Amino acid sequence: MPETETPEKPPSELPQDPRWKLLVFYLCFYGFMTQIRPGESFITPYLLGTEKNFTKEEVTNEITPVLSYSYMAVLVPIFLLTDYLRYKPVLVLQSLSHISIWLLLIFGTSILAMQFMEFFYGITMAARVAYSSYIFSLVTPSRYQRMASYSRASVLMGVFTSSVLGQLCVTVGDTTFMTLNYISLGFVCFGLILTLFLERPKRSLFFNRSEPVCNGASPTELDKMNAGEPPWYKAPSWQNLVFIRMLKELGTIVRLPQLRLWSLWWIFNSAGYYLILYYVQILWNEIYPTRDSRRVYNGGVEAASTLLGAITSFTAGYVKIRWTLWSELVICIVTAWQAGLLLLMNMTTNIWICYVAYILFRGSYQFLVPIAIFQIAASLSKELCALVFGINTFLATVLKTIITIIITDKRGLALSVHPQFYIYFGYFTLLTVVYLAASVCVAVRHNACRKPQEAATTRELCSPIGEVPSKDRSTELVSECGKGESHA
Questions:
Q1: Could you report the per-residue pLDDT of 363-383, keeping only the tens digit for each?
Q2: Around Cβ 394, how many Cβ atoms within 10 Å?
Q3: Does the predicted TM-score (pTM) go above 0.85?
Q4: Shortest CA distance to 258 belongs to which of 442, 27, 381?
Q5: Residues 227, 232, 236, 241: is their CA dihedral positive or negative?
């Protein structure tokens, strides 16, 4: 660019709405209030109780599997519509789906009605992307990290408050599950009102852009795609869509070792994690089948696990190790710990031991989530980061659905909850073995690459200045062996 020209103002300096603080506060308040659903922790005992009187087989093999199917079916369309429609319409859809869930829970009496309830539940889960990405349209890139932490904290506090409120209503207030569902219906209706007052952003990440794609750690990624093209060349309009160009860029990004490792962790471990979350309440009811609602402590357990998850997520931000060398081993240790907790949950006959094991299981998963986010997002723009996480989530959902069809659905093996948890234990054990083998390979490769590096250093100190070729060959060898370790 000639010196006389004024360079284009970078996105971090682009003007933003002067009301951004108020908008962020309202969005965080909205995120908190929409999580207040005190009946959510007690849906399974409600379905199995006298008020609905479904059997364990119906809940396990016919009703709950629909959640995985609907989530997979709507995830990609909602991901694209969220950006294309600029967030707010999808948040309205999420609120309407929440209302549909509790109307069906209160007035539905058949298996088909409960299957529709799970279908709408899948929509609400897929629509979470609208809230998590809405914040990026309100602030400049320099404030992304802090504002994202505020929005996440508001959601966690909402979940914690909801779980505590539900437990207090059941245990102290002697509230029935049906009454708790009416209370939840009132809160989700209030959430819909809050949604209507959200301001619809003028721009989004992919389809509605007002500036070049250069907001993240790699600001010229899309410009590099067009390098070498003559100025008169113009691709078809569909090829110029940012989303299509992003998909093309993924072919080169997948070669990054840390991104590949943590993406695989996200796919395989999160699939198993959410299967546990879907079916653990059925396991609790199997271990402690009480008819006294005051002795059902699901809300307290969810509150404790959410709090521990928030603590471990916060702690993970201060862990300083050489991730390019130790990532596989850390994942291996955490996954082995989770496998042991699953075995304990399935074998114990003491409900409190099962509760504690579940809390620790969720906490250990949440410990790795922020690490995975950082390792994946470190070298990506926010657009590519959103796309990578979207693809990872979709693949995890596909895997989760396949497992559900095989072992849970009545058209598959239709296993009861205890055999299911033995399979989940075997699944996490298999992942542990794979991660252990990967960590051994990394250690062997690291030691093998240290020797030529040390030899190259020795020759460099002892050789005359003119011996450049030898040095170059050693350096080239080290760089080839050390790919993936240079960013430690």
A1: 999 999 888 888 887 767 666
A2: 17
A3: no
A4: 442
A5: positive
